[in-house]
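Exercise (ungraded).
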Amino acid sequence: NAGVTQTPKFRILKIGQSMTLQCAQDMNHNYMYWYRQDPGMGLKLIYYSVGAGITDKGEVPNGYNVSRSTTEDFPLRLELAAPSQTSVYFCASIEAGGLGEQYFGPGTRLTVT
Amino acid sequence: DAKTTQPTSMDCAEGRAANLPCNHSTISGNEYVYWYRQIHSQGPQYIIHGLKNNETNEMASLIITEDRKSSTLILPHATLRDTAVYYCIVRGGGGSNYKLTFGKGTLLTVNP
């Protein structure tokens, strides 16, 4: 298994540009998450999904959108990039009913200038 | 989910046991204690979790007090590669969405 994969690893955006951060998992997990981590801080939940076609907001959803058309993929969309969205973005997944490990991807480092 | 309190930083000598404390005085009966760590800027890595009994795996041991208001993560023989930020997280059990709430964690520095 590849686990949780994220692309791209790094990206620089200009203010107002849009982009999609990709996340995929091959473990057939129902639950998927997007977090962001600002320098020196813990992770904050942006959006999560409990299955294909079902998404919900986390702590910091403003400026982002998500979709979940398949079990495997959970892309995060930034429509109008702002400097406040400069951060490292992590995707994660866990199996339904799982009380064990939440698997994290390697992260996408995004800079908005 | 209950809030947790951890020291900001700790040091440990290589080869010695690292004992990382966590307070979670408002934990409720169906909430689990989880520990994750984050090495440099990598994605967080699961270490261990428990409800009320002590737990051990190949990475660490988790000691939860009888009243469940605090816990200690023990790395029995710390190595330089264990230098990381360690997060103690309390999370609800069945019926929840399993999301994790991260604080700032404890920066553990293992010194040669």
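Further reading is listed at the end of the chapter. For now, observe: Chain B touches chain A through 21 residues (CB under 8 Å). The two ends of chain B are 37 Å apart (CA to CA).
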